[in-house]
Design a protein that fits this description.
This protein is mostly helical. The protein has a domain at about 75-120. It contains 6 helices and no strands. The chain has helices at about 5-20, 25-40, 50-55, 60-70, 90-100, 105-115. Helix 3 (about 50-55) packs across helix 4 (about 60-70) and helix 5 packs across helix 6 (about 105-115). The longest helix has 15 residues, at about 60-70. It starts with 6 loop residues before the first helix and ends with a helix.
Length: about 120
């Protein structure tokens, strides 16, 4: 069962939905906000966490990404690399697909993982 949102959180999610061109706040909650929460970038009320603030700043972005990689993603994903040592998008997407995610979710999760893993 989905948790009930207070008026302030609902308003923040409505802003996310509008900025991202999503049809409804429920879509924003399902497709964006819940993932930001899972990555530890925002708290239950939709406010930035310490990690979220580090993720926003160029100087501490890499540190925040490394914490996400260490805490959220399994080590197995780190082995799915191309010849340059960068995440192999096709292999990573396939891995997420094998975890039971649909094509669209697997593609989005692969992109998020690959962006966070980038050492550039």
């Amino acid at each position: 069962m989905a948790r009930r949102l207070d008026a302030g959180e609902r308003a923040r999610i409505e802003v996310v939905a509008a900025l991202m061109g999503m049809s409804t706040p429920d879509s924003a909650e399902r497709n964006t906000v819940s993932h930001l929460r899972r990555l530890g970038l925002i708290d239950e009320d939709g406010n930035l966490t310490s990690r979220g603030n580090k993720w926003r700043a160029d100087l501490s972005y890499g540190e925040a990404c490394q914490k996400i990689l260490d805490e959220i993603y399994p080590d197995e994903l780190g082995t799915l690399v191309d010849d340059d040592g960068s995440p192999d998008a096709t292999k990573v997407k396939t891995w997420f697909g094998h975890q039971g995610y649909g094509d669209s979710n697997a593609r989005q999760m692969s992109a998020t993982y690959s962006t966070g893993s980038s050492r550039d």
